[in-house]
Amino acid sequence: MYRYSRSYVGPVQAVILDLAGTCIDFGSLAPIQAFLKLFMDEGLEITEAEARGPMGTEKREHIRQLLAMPRIAQAWSEIHGAAPHEDDIERLYQAFLPLQTAAIAERSELISGALELQEFAHNHGIRLGVNTGYSREMFEVMLPALERQGFQPQSIVCATEVPLGRPAPYMSLRGMIELGAQAVQACVKVDDTATGIEEGLNAGMWTVAVVASGNALGLSEEQFFSLSEVERSQRIAVARSKMAQSGAHYVIDSIADLPRVIQCIQEQLQLGVCP
What we know:
Blueprint: E1 14-18, H1 30-40, H2 48-52, H3 59-68, H4 70-80, H5 86-106, H6 114-123, E2 127-132, H7 136-149, E3 155-158, H8 170-179, E4 187-191, H9 194-202, E5 206-210, H10 221-226, H11 229-244, E6 250-252, H12 258-270
Parallel strand pairs: 1-2, 1-4, 2-3, 4-5, 5-6
Keywords: Hydrolase, Magnesium, Metal-binding, Schiff base
Cofactor: Mg(2+)
Family: Belongs to the HAD-like hydrolase superfamily. PhnX family.
């Protein structure tokens, strides 16, 4: 029988990846496109910074948090003659679904390093899973593209399939169970949002924050590499500082750097160091 131990000294057993901004959709742009269009259709223009604020949460909750922002709430009241309420949230969510589905279909390309990470995990006996603020229906839209590119996670958990989405730990814990990991200390949660890092911390796992490809920078791959080397370094430094505040154990540019970090975590575990 397995016995829980704070001083776990075994190997890394599972890695749980966020999707958009972490292993697909460089810059995490699909949700942003959908949220900007959603509110534009209501006659209310929101900024990209506002749209990114609740990133990582389940999408209905994302809408709720946007409507709770003072500027947006006031603008909504001026347009609609009343403060936003639950019926508005549900109506917006239903309108959001086709917008998000269309955006996802256009932005399901793997981020460089994803397939190499998958091979690294396979070669080291590490099981690889994903979780996401997308619903199962949204995920199914991107699944054929992931399969065509050769990406095949062994666990997929969507925010609508657990009691609470991020920052609650339930998606990570369900992923851990599906992947057969026997200790939270043996699991690594990787995400490009502070909310996703908090999810991993709440689950008791090692956490790795991704900056260059994700929400903290918010640039497409083309925009990112069009920057001068100096400006790119400066913007990455700002994003790293921001994500370091999430409490992540490690901060990396992209999942291309993750195998090295996993090896560092393995060394820590062998010394009896736990998250």
